[in-house]
Amino acid sequence: MKVWAGELGFADLAVSGVDLSSAEPGLEAWLASGFHGEMDYMARHGMMRARPAELVPGTLRVVSVRMNYWPQAADAQATLADGGRAYISRYALGRDYHKLVRNRLQKLAERIAAEMPHGYRVFTDSAPVLEVELASRAGLGWRGKHTLLLNRRAGSYYFLGEIFTDLPLPVDAPEAPHCGSCRACLDACPTGAIVAPYQVDARRCISYLTIELKGAIPEELRPLIGNRIYGCDDCQLACPWNRFAQLGAEPDFAPRHRLDEASLVELFAWSESEFQARMAGSAIYRIGYERWLRNLAVGLGNAPGTPEVIAALQARADDPSGLVREHVGWALARHGLRGT
Fold first, then answer.
1. Is 252 assigned a ligand-binding role in the annotation?
2. What residues contact residue 279 under an 8 Å CB cut-off, 6+ apart?
3. pTM of the predicted model as reported, rounded to 2 decimal places
4. Is 260 annotated as a binding residue?
5. How far apart (Å, rounded) are the C-alpha atoms in residues 89 and 207?
6. Which of 94, 170, 188, 219 is the most exposed place for a label (fewest CB within 10 A)?
7. 55 among annotated binding-site residues
8. Contact (CB, 8 A) for 129 and 35
9. What tens digit of pLDDT does each residue of 46-86 get?
10. DSSP per residue over 23-71, as a string?
11. Got the DSSP string for 159-183?
12. Domains present along the chain, CATH in parentheses
């Protein structure tokens, strides 16, 4: 199966069982703490995430795969250090991974079925699945203190996917964790969202604030967001294991529309039709134009107060969206100005 997976562009494959009962108390405590924020679907599915055989009756094993995505793009640290440029999480610079990974998983499942007929379903970040838990139990890596999967040979820059199958496949051995006393990811988080090792309060996480949150970004967190307008990679950039990260081989993950080097002013000038045309097929498309402008307004509020930045903000001071107006007003106030 590993050879077939490699032929489809996956970097690795491993198999786990379906008993995740030991993960349920942690999931329950995380939800009880409200760390999921507005992601109601996390609570709605409850413990089904830890029970693969409830999600897909008859499931005996889970085949986990990973696919590298780190693109050849402008230097991430240099972009973060340039307050006038827009930082977009590296996974989102190209096309949306969901369809690509899912289609490859489907082909892999069909290839397996040709040799060993089985009942199956494929998933990639698309259902109530504890994918990191499953991947770590299968031995694809271990859960880092930032809660992402870490691999000694590849760091953490990859997508995960799963095949739930009724085949009684032999399971792989899990890998021991290798974080030791390191706390680089905790110290690097701009908003302190990693509240303890292996515990993330999504309500403070920049990825949540710029992608999942539908309303206003809390004012006290806005200055901490800097120029990150879609997602955040800081905990991964700080992780020593990512010195072994491998470039993604998929052309679809390459940056589109110069998103790895664009300025905040440039992106803020896009019309809604430009946003829809350029972001079609991108993970960014799903946040919509209004939240795109909201995020950019925060970035511009944190940017150096150049004439171009001020002019860009003032041009949207009377935006039809109340959400955008409020964030533009905040940004102008950061530069000592009032909206017009």
1. no
2. 285, 292
3. 0.95
4. no
5. 9
6. 170
7. no
8. no
9. 788 889 999 999 999 999 999 999 999 999 999 999 999 99
10. GHHHHHHHHHTTTTTT-HHHHHSGGGGG-HHHHSTT--EEEEEEEE---
11. EEEEEEE-S-PPPPPPPPP--TT--
12. 2-262 (no CATH), 263-340 (1.25.10)
Q: Annotated binding residue at 214?
A: yes
125 classed as catalytic: yes
- CA 16 centroid distance within chain: 23
234 is in an annotated binding site: no
Question: How far is residue 47's CA from residue 289's CA, in Å, rounded to a whole number?
Answer: 34
| CA–CA separation, 335 and 306 (whole Å) | 9
Interval 144-201: pLDDT, tens: 999 999 999 999 999 999 999 999 999 999 999 999 999 999 999 999 999 999 999 9
Q: Tell me the sheet residues that pair with 13.
A: 65
pLDDT at 42 over 80: no
Give CA–CA dist 144/156, Å, rounded: 9
| Catalytic site residue from 125, 166, 172, 252 | 125
> Given a cut of 80, is residue 338 above it in pLDDT?
no
The number of residues making up the chain comes to 340
The three-point CA angle 85-87-92 to 5° equals 140
Instruction: Flag whether 152 is marked binding.
Output: no
CA nearest 231: which of 76, 40, 38?
76
Q: How far is CA 85 from CA 57, 78, 82, 290, in A?
A: 48, 9, 6, 20
Q: Specify the higher pLDDT residue, 253 or 49.
A: 253
Answer whether residue 339 shows pLDDT above 70: no
CB 150 within 8 A of CB 156: yes
Cα distance between residue 98 and residue 78, in whole Å: 28
- Mean pLDDT value across the chain: 96
Rounded Cα–Cα distance for residues 265 and 149 (Å): 35
Ranges assigned E (strand) in the chain: 12-16, 61-68, 87-88, 120-123, 142-143, 149-150, 158-165, 194-196, 199-200, 228-230
List residues bridging with 164 in a β-sheet: 62, 121
Has 105 been labeled as part of a binding site?
no
What is the rounded radius of gyration, in angstroms, for the C-alpha atoms of the chain?
21
